[in-house]
Amino acid sequence: MADDLPSEFDVIVIGTGLPESIIAAACSRSGQRVLHVDSRSYYGGNWASFSFSGLLSWIMEYQENSDIVNESPAWQEQILLNEEAIALSKLDKTIQHVEVFCYASQDMHEGVEEAGALQKNHSPMTSANSTEAANSACLPTEDESLSTVSGEVLTEQTPGSALEVNDVEVTRVKESGRDKTCMLSTSKEGTSENVPIEEDIAKQPKKNRITYSQIVKEGRKFNIDLVSKLLYSRGLLIDLLIKSNVSHYAEFKNITRILAFREGRVEQVPCSRADVFNSKQLTMVEKRMLMKFLTFCMEYEKHPDEYKAYEEITFSEYLKTQKLTPNLQHFVLHSIAMTSKTTSSTIDGLKATRKFLHCLGRYGNTPFLFPLYGQGELPQCFCRMCAVFGGIYCLRHSVQCLVVDKESRKCKAIIDQFGQRIISKHFLVEDSYFSENTCSHVQYRQISRAVLITDRSVLQADSDQQISILTVPAEEPGTSAVRVIELCSSTMTCMKGTYLVHLTCTSSKTAREDLEPVVQKLFIPYTEMEMENEVEKPRLLWALYFNMRDSSDINRNSYNDLPSNVYVCSGPDCGLGNDNAVKQAETLFQQICPNEDFCPPPPNPEDIVLDGDSLQPGTSESSVVPEANSETPKESANLWKPEEHSE
To answer: Are 266 and 259 in contact (CB under 8 A)?
Structure first.
């Protein structure tokens, strides 16, 4: 491997998270020679998605104590007298307090395997005591690497248009010139077996006894994200996907419902004007109040007299001055603005409400999209773009150290696991790769995460294919509200008859301590006794809790003695959207490639001129370059403009 790798690049990127993948794609697109390496065996780092058995293998990596591998000090012999080394960490410490609970019937039979799984040799990291670790946490010993599925084009939806393909309502957006076109598409080759068929769903019994062995056997139907996020329809990431044409590599689905948790009950929140008018939860007076307030929020900056006097108070207190009922105050604060009751200012709340309303109507009646097959598809989409323009990728390829020139204080090379020295001008390193010595002065926050598999939705509806977001307010001082995202099988993230539920909040304790009270409010553990009787709450089949490091917004000066040409990329933050990752990627790209366009559209195939005629038709490089159009698309009507709404 080492002999085949070039010895010099323009940019070396260590880590394959979303910010690093965007930067690598942008640099490759601008003509830089890019090497993208990751010591892990999967793309995405803490942004990754796993099948069920892949997630179990990931869990074992963090539960075992055999992660540290004794490395040969041979690389130290390559450091010259006029050089010094910044050793990189061999152990990922971004995940802590991993706890797994299985509530489904554990009738595991020996030899039960994930359907279609390939037999692989375990890596040294996961082979030791893997059987014992699996038994202790009800985990099978099969190992499964991340399944990569390419996607399709993101196509902007005109109001009222919906696409149903095999009972999957998929939002796919392509912006061509100034026109908006809804493009029909069938399922991709190789993925048709994962697409729910309408007849199969109709035949499925309402009361289904789901066992742990079923979950393992259908494990490839799961795509479980380590980080739970959604895409704002007018957010920075959607704009970047469309601009760069990376949207060709993914498919997206609308979030169908915004939910609220109040007085122990889950309720649906009306978002658009039509939802408000059709709502049976609100009185006519409340509908008028909500309409008036949300219309004001869309253009609040034009009416400073309405909020200037309240800038010093919290948004929660400001809502009380607006003659909104407690019911409406709760909806606006927790389900529309999604801001903190105690820390968010009036301006923060108004901005968040306007952002929510501004995103309505672009692709559906909610502001959010979710990528089919999970959030982990997004880093891979940008990895594909980087590879199209010549970037080189190496997974399971660890970097021992950064080599720094003592005189110039610039990083000049890396030394990899094979002892090869690879020279570069710029180095981007994901935060988790730095050693404790480098990060001794860094103060990290933590994110509490839970992943649940349940048997039905938190709010039953006519259709069982609902994608929902719910905010559960904090009850105790010093704690955070918990964000709940519930995914159905049509998102290609879980098997039919189950739901995949993600819980996220800023940590105050361990993940289980932070999130278990919310889990107990919304779900009940699966038991055979309760299976015989109807219960109000969904049954909990399986649960995973863990804490993840939040390295966003860390000042670069907090790291010890980093050379000026070494750039730090953070891991996922606790926010709902991906704006932080895109802003970070663009900022770092401009430092590496000043005055270059950030992720411009690729050229049209007919505009590419190849050197010579050696490439055969159908195999040319241009055949893998997706189309793009740099013109600004015509925006769809916003659902909160009165003149564009008809009753």
So the answer is: yes
Q: What is the DSSP string of 216-261?
A: HHTGGG--EESS---EETTSHHHHHHHHHTGGGG--EEE--EEEEE
Which residues is 404 bridged to in the sheet? Answer: 84, 411
| Tokens representing residue 283 in the block | 């009185």
Q: Which amino acid, one-letter code, is at 326?
A: P
* DSSP codes joined into one string, 171-219: B-EEEETTEEEE---PPPTT-GGGSPPHHHHHHS-SS---BHHHHHHTG
Structure tokens at 394: 């190496």
DSSP state, 8? B
Amino acid at position 62, single letter: Y
Return the exposure string of 556-591: e unless at least 16 CB atoms fall within 10 Å of the residue's CB, then b: eeebeebbebbbbbbbbbbebbbbbbbebbbebbee
Candidates 372, 469, 468, 470; CA nearest to 168 is 372
As a whole number of angstroms, the distance between CA 554 and CA 569 comes to 10
Q: Residues 104, 106, 109, 113: is their CA dihedral positive or negative?
A: positive
Distance CA 240, CA 253 (A): 18
Q: How many helices (H) and strands (E) does the chain have?
A: 16, 27
Cα 606 to Cα 152, 247, 600, 612, 620, distances in angstroms: 21, 20, 17, 15, 11
Residues sharing a CB contact under 8 Å with residue 73, sequence separation 6 or more, in sequence order? none
Q: Which residues, given as ranges, of the chain have pLDDT below 50?
A: 1-2, 66-67, 70, 118-137, 139-206, 613-637, 641-647
Using only the alpha carbons of the chain, give its radius of gyration: 25
Strands 499-506 and 34-38: unpaired
Please provide the DSSP assignment of 60-113 as one string: HHHH-S-------GGGGGG--TTEEEEEBPSS--SEEEEEEEE-SB--PPTT--
Location of structure tokens 């309720």: 267
* DSSP code of residue 333: I
Question: How far is residue 351 from each of residues 314, 347, 364, 393, 611, measured CA to CA in Å?
Answer: 13, 6, 21, 40, 51
Give the SS3 label for residue 23: helix
User: Nearest 5°: phi and psi at 13?
Assistant: -115, 125
Whole-model pTM over 0.70: yes
Angstrom distance (rounded) from CA 214 to CA 192:
20
Q: Which residue has the tokens 């139907």?
A: 221
Residue ranges and CATH numbers for the domains of the chain are: 8-91+373-442+553-592 (3.50.50.60), 272-359 (1.10.405.10)
CA 233, 235, 241, 244 dihedral sign is positive
376 contacts: CB under 8 Å, gap ≥ 6: 43, 44, 47, 48, 49, 50, 146, 223, 225, 226
Backbone angles phi, psi at 439, to 5 degrees: -105, 20
Q: What is the mean pLDDT of the chain?
A: 80
Residue 571 near residue 430, CB atoms below 8 Å: yes
* Half-sphere exposure of residue 442: CA atoms within 13 angstroms, side-chain side: 26
Spatial CA neighbour of 397 closest among 18, 42, 28, 11: 42
What are the pLDDT digits (tens) for 475-494? 887 789 999 999 999 999 99
